[in-house]
Amino acid sequence: MSTSRKITYTIIVIVAVIILVSLAAILGEFGTIQPVSQNEITILLGVTNGIATIVLAAVAAVNMREGKMVRGEMVRPHLALEPAYYEFDMKTGDITGFTCLNLANGGAGARDVEIDFCCSGKCSALYASSMGTNDRVQLWNGRFAELGSNVTVGVKYKNMFGKTLEETFTINIDSIKKGKRKFVPVLNPSSSK
Q: Choosing a second label site near 75 at 20 to 30 A (CA), which of 34, 61, 89, 93?
């Protein structure tokens, strides 16, 4: 549950408790302080109804906003960098790098995909007319040492509604080496069938 929804529901509970306690006090549940006329009870019930309507409208607004966010997420491409074709150390069997780098899409389709791929101080401007779900664009192919110390991929694309979105992906190879991290292969269960 999102934070805005939690806050809204907390406010609703607090308002409901205040209304119930106020009604109980006015109607004499805690002992009558003064006699209450029928007109005063009608006014109180009208105010209570108005407050309840405002609270329900607030809940509907929060739900509509979250629904819009969910719909936007459903039509958004989910892009990621995908190393492939690994290099192995013949003595230890560890992966020492990769020889291919793809841009993969695991979400909805992307159109007019403009890609700026930078490594070793060189940049390439690439273009793909579209990337469907599970499509891949090969960004680079070569020896791992050619990548240098940092890889940056800037992607600008349109979702299925024509909204322009931008994302930047980086691989800091120096940080990986300094942290003595080992590469691990990413396996796709559907490709092994």
A: 61
**What are the residue boundaries of the structural domains of the chain, listed by start?**
3-74, 79-192
Does this model's pTM top 0.70? My answer is no
13-42 confidence digits (pLDDT tens): 887 777 777 767 666 665 555 666 777 777
CB-CB contact of 81 with 106 (8 Å): no
Cβ neighbors of 171 (< 8 A, separation 6 or more) are: 81, 147, 150, 151
* DSSP one-letter string for the chain: --HHHHHHHHHHHHHHHHHHHHHHHHTTTT--SS---HHHHHHHHHHHHHHHHHHHHHHHHHHHHHHHHHHHHHTS--EEEEEEEEEE-TTT--EEEEEEEEEEE-SS-EEEEEEEEEETTEEEEEEEEEE-TT-EEEEEES-GGGG-SEEEEEEEEE-TT--EEEEEEEEEHHHHHHTTPPB-PPP-GGGG-
- Name which of 21, 17, 139, 28 is nearest 82 in CA terms: 139
